[in-house]
Amino acid sequence: MLHIKNLQAEIDGKEILKGINLEVKPGEVHAIMGPNGAGKSTLASILAGRQDYTVTGGSVTFDGKDLLDLSPEERAGEGLFLSFQYPVEIPGVSTTNFIKTAVNEVRKYRGEEPLDAVAFLKMMKEKMALMEMDQTMLSRSLNEGFSGGEKKRNEIFQMAMLQPKLAILDETDSGLDIDAIRVVANGVNKLRSSENAVLAITHYQRLLDYLVPDFVHVLYNGRIVKSGTKELALELEEKGYDFIKAEMQEAS
Ligand code: ADP
Ligand code: MG
Ligand code: MG
Questions:
Q1: Of 42, 45, 174, 180, which has the fewest CB atoms closer than 10 Å, so is most exposed?
Q2: Which CATH superfamily is domain 2-251 in?
Q3: Belongs to which family (predicted)?
């Protein structure tokens, strides 16, 4: 589904990603962990199509298409979802209208008719129940005055409505409390299927207690230096990132 080959990127002339290789197949959950400044958010931003970074080498294909060639809207249309670290507040735009627009843009991209009001409401109700969401949230302006937990719940709700093939969750610096972590993990778990995949970027092993990954990768200084199963996350939690550093020094 997702093939990242030797991806290199820089910002303001500073090399940040130094050759990332990663393959994600349908049905898999991958976690990317790593210390602050390793390049995790940079990787997520490049996959989402943000313009601040310059890709200097390598390739990314998504379902056989050159992802880096697509606009952010086209990426969403192809079935990519990125949970934003700091969801924007949009005064005057209700959460409902925001989601309706997003859903219908994706449908349009796929050559499908927009959902009519009845079908849209039905889907909203279904997904709200699934996410155990409070209906009153939807009439409020997007993210305005939402607590951290509410923002997260809303984000995962958006994901449920969009039904992406690949969800990229960057939770690194958002300071989630334990309730928000559970909301994210439970929501994502409910959406898991053999057809979709998740790339969860986190430095909390705690998230992975609830959202159990098939693979764990350590991103360190712009490279994936170690990959393993969920036990690797536990080892990192126990030993910190210093043991990766030590292993790398031994190897060189
Ligand atoms: P992580 O998410 O793993 O903590 P980031 O991808 O946010 O790491 O950052 C990787 C490196 O890129 C850091 O050294 C950071 O200072 C640098 N960086 C990220 N964004 C910018 C930016 N807008 N301008 C300059 N440097 C940046
Ligand atoms: Mg950071
Ligand atoms: Mg980050």
A1: 174
A2: P-loop containing nucleotide triphosphate hydrolases (3.40.50.300)
A3: Belongs to the ABC transporter superfamily. Ycf16 family.
